[in-house]
Structure formats: C-alpha cells, structure tokens
Amino acid sequence: MMALPEPLADAPRRATPPLIEQASAEQAGWRGRVARAFSRAAPQYAERASAQRAMAASLLARLPERAGAVLDLGCGPGETAAGLKARYGADCRVIGLDLAPGMLDEARRTHGDPVRWLCGDAAVLPLSEASLDLVVSNLAIQWCPDLASVLAEVRRVLRPGGRALINTLAPGTLAEVNHAWSHPERPAALLAFRDAGEHRRAARAAGFRRVDCREVAARFHYPDLAAVMASIKGVGAQVARPGARLTRADLARAARRFEALREPEGLPVTYRLLTLELST
Ligand SMILES: C[S@@+](CC[C@H](N)C(=O)[O-])C[C@H]1O[C@@H](n2cnc3c(N)ncnc32)[C@H](O)[C@@H]1O
Fold first, then answer.
1. Collapsing DSSP states into helix, strand and coil, what is residue 218?
2. Which of these, 98, 134, 153, 189, could form a disulfide with 67 (CB 3.0-4.6 Å)?
3. pTM of full prediction above 0.70
4. pLDDT tens for residues 140-195?
5. Does the CB atom of residue 76 touch ligand 1 within 6 A?
6. 140 CA → ligand 1 middle, Å
7. Within the chain, which residues score under 70 in pLDDT?
8. How far does residue 139's CA lie from ligand 1's centre (Å)?
9. How many domains does the chain have?
10. Which domain holds residue 61?
11. Residue ranges of the Methyltransferase type domain (predicted)?
12. What is the rounded average pLDDT for all residues in the chain?
C-alpha cells in the first residue's frame, strides 16, 4: 500500500532537540502531502481496498466484549468505524479520526452521523485524557513519522483497563514491488517501515502495561502490474515529490521484473502485517 516508483522514502523521522524546528516544518510538509494524497483517493478507496479490508478483519476478530467509547484512528472512509458502531450499539460513542478531510467527507456521506468524524493528527489527538475504552487502528500509523508521540497519545486517551488494537506494517512489506521498481540509479521508494522491536519499545515507553506484537505475512495476488499499482495508488498510498517522472522504459522494465515473480494465482504482493495489542 505504500511504495511507489517516485522517491518516497523521505518521511521525516524523529529529530534530536537542536533539529526540532526543522523537523516540525518537515513533518508539517509531510502531513500535508499525506492528507492530500489520501483525500484524492477517498472516492474510490472502498472499491480498491480489498487488501486493507482483509487485514482489518484480523483486527476486528480481537475486539473486546464491551466498550463504551471507541476511537478508529486513521479511519479512512469509515467502514471500520461504522462496523464498530454496529458492533457496540447505540450506547457506545464511536469516533472516526483522520488527517485527510476528503476521507472524512466520504465517511460522512457513506455512513452518516452515528459516528463522530474528526479531522486530526494521530500524534496530537484532539481528545481528552482517559476518555476512551478502546482504540482501533488499521494501517494508518506507518504514515506517522513520530511513532513515540502516536503511542503516547493513544495511551493518554485510554482509560485504566483500556485497550489498543493496531495493525501496521513491517519491513519486507511490498518486497515484490520494491524488487520490480528497483533501478541501479534510482532505488524504489518505500516508506521506511519500523520493525516489531521498535514498536514494542515505543509501546513500553508510552507506558502500556501489556504489550503484545505479532507479525504475519499477508499475501495478495493481482493479474498484472497495472492492477498491482492500482491497488497501491488507488488507496492513496502515493506521496510523490513534485518533479518525479516515469518513462515508458521504466514501466516496461518494472513489468518484466514483476513478471519473473508470477505465481499460479497471479503477481504476488506481500504485506508484513504487525498487530499490536496494548493494555493500559
Ligand atoms: C491506508 S488508509 C487506512 C484507512 C482505514 N483505516 C482502513 O482500514 O481502510 C490510511 C489512513 O491513515 C490516515 N492517516 C495518515 N496519517 C495520519 C495521521 N498522522 N493522523 C491521522 N490519520 C492519518 C490517512 O489519511 C488514511 O485515511
């Protein structure tokens, strides 16, 4: 979901104190690009997001029996948030939060007002301390450069006894896409995925009492390179730098390299899915 032939691997990472101002500006620029890319993708997201939906299902299988206040963090067009509302009923307050206004417009249009739709950044949640029982998040936090702040915010808004169920992606995600687009003079651009150890350490530093982190490979197949790229770009995982251009020769080369990986079911795309279960 988040690799492109354009140089993408420039997501700002956490900075040491003397660089904080520069890092804040970089992070603001990054957030703007992420929000625009996902807003553009919003109208066709639901149609293209079969891989994301399959990965969300594994998260929903772990839901606690009861919850009175729930956040879907990085809710996209709102399918999971609407599902949480249906699952926990009228007495449960469900919030869907996303950085991309276009995603929230789509969520409102499709699922209406039973869910409260909020525009905001996962690293600075516009929510009160200890106000939620459950935070669910599917495939959003890999877009956040500051993992420590995101997990600290999730911890802050959870009540004692609260839980977070988070799906994110680990290194090795989209390895086939990386291989196909790699070029001696222009490495393929992948988000810098963080590994399980980094997530565990950040969750403990955020103050979670119980930290469980599992990694599995989720594999999907597509008929051709165009379908692979549509499955990535179609869900908004595209934050190209201005000026990045692809030639026909680049496309032909990538198609040849991907074809060499073909399996009976089609062209494979691997996601290394990390599921975090955190308790306060
Ligand atoms: C791949 S989509 C996943 C959407 C949805 N959770 C799903 O399962 O289909 C990632 C979402 O994360 C949102 N996102 C990215 N960075 C974010 C941030 N810093 N704060 C909140 N949402 C963010 C994007 O706007 C996008 O809607």
1. strand
2. 134
3. yes
4. 999 999 999 999 999 999 999 999 999 999 999 999 998 898 876 666 666 789 99
5. yes
6. 4
7. 1-22, 184-190, 234-244
8. 7
9. 1
10. 27-279
11. 71-166
12. 89
16 within a domain of the structure (yes/no):
no
Residue nearest to atom 13 of ligand 1 (CA): 74
Q: What is residue 229's predicted lDDT score, i.e. its pLDDT?
A: 87
**How many whole angstroms from 45 Cα to the centroid of ligand 1?**
11
Kindly give the residue spans of alpha helices, DSSP state H, lying in 164-247: 175-181, 196-205, 225-233
The CATH code of the domain that includes 261 is 3.40.50.150
Question: How far, in Å, CA of 222 to CA of 256, rounded?
Answer: 15
Task: Output the CA torsion 14→17→19→21 (10° steps).
Answer: 90
Cα of 67 to ligand 1 centre, how many Å? 22
| Per-residue pLDDT at 7 | 32
Percent of the chain scored above 90 by pLDDT?
A: 73
Q: Is the CB of 75 within 6 Å of ligand 1?
A: yes
Does residue 6 lie within any of the structural domains? no
| Domain membership flag for residue 109 | yes
Type and span of the H or E element at 183 = none
Name the 3-class secondary structure at 96: strand
Please check whether residue 5 lies inside any domain of the structure. Answer: no
Closest CA to 54 of 244, 269, 266, 211: 269
Tell me if 77 CB under 6 Å of ligand 1. Answer: no
Task: Kindly report the protein residue whose alpha carbon is nearest to atom 8 of ligand 1.
Answer: 138
Residue with tokens 């499955």: 231
Ligand 1 proximity of 146 Cβ (cutoff 6 Å): no
Best residue among 80, 95, 99 to mutate for probing ligand 1's pocket (most ligand atoms within 8 Å of CB) is 99
Q: Which two tokens stand for residue 24?
A: 């804040």
